[in-house]
Amino acid sequence: MDNIIKAPISFRPYLKTVIWGGDKICAYKGIPQPEPNIGESWEISAVPGHESVVEGGAYDGDTLTSLIDRFGPQLLGDRVAARYDGKFPLLIKIIDARDNLSVQVHPDDTLAMKRHNSLGKTEMWYIIDSDPGSKIYAGLSRQLTPELYGRMVAEGTFADALAAHDSAAGDIFFLPAGRVHAIGAGNLLAEIQESSDITYRIFDYNRRDAAGNTRELHTELAKDAIDYTVRDDYKSAPADPTVKDAGIVKCSHFDVRRILSSDGDGMELHTDPSSFTVIMCLDGEATVTAPEGSVTLRKGHSILLPATAGTVEIKGTATLLTAQA
User: Fold this and answer.
1) pTM metric for this prediction
2) I need a surface site. Which of 20, 75, 95, 241 has the fewest CB within 10 A?
3) Is 201 a catalytic residue?
4) Residues in Cβ contact with 23 at an 8 Å cutoff, skipping those fewer than 6 apart
């Protein structure tokens, strides 16, 4: 095991081209757009084949997984390292939906482990920006049974049973595994989720790719994964605009807070030795200074603070999300 790691770590974003992607992510991040239809920026990832690569600093060029191999619980936190067997448990993204995403659901940990030897996928969304009239689809608007679900999918009417919500900047949606959902066209959002890429696609608007092929659907796999409970409200309470450090989503997989940093009014953030801390800059600019270096966080960028970073100072005017596992 190497010496204790206390530096903030930046990563190169992995920009993913998808059929429903647009051109907002690179403009938002202030970077060149290498190709059209970029729908996702994987900010911090340990998903096999898409491990984040460090950009700048003493660990430039190292992957997140190699840093974990090198520093173990010092980076992850002792509780996280023990719970997840030394693996990074979250996936941090920015998503741009030029068109509607497919209607989908994700399995919980038990079902995902049984079928795929993987974590399940509970996630949350923070709306960064939305076009007028944009929607988020989350949960069911009426009671269904697995049998009725199957008939509606076969008839192409399942999307009619989705609960639709107007979306605006600052809106928050918590999506536990099993909740059917879709991101509507016109939304730019931050996503914090379990480190899993397992999606059961239920309906995709009969779209075809450049080769004329429709995307695979997972009707039967989804049937057993869906939580058929109907709730009154699927939108989470917004962060209090008068509170500088507000909790917005807390579950067994992650604890997410919204922080407002004001120019000239430095803030201290104390990392928890039990877990790493992710910081995403949603708006503005802030300098994050740790015991072993500092990083200037700009809009659309994210960093990872090791669990052993200790006390970190934040200066600047910015809206930030923090996440711990």
Assistant:
1) 0.96
2) 241
3) yes
4) 33, 36, 38, 96, 98
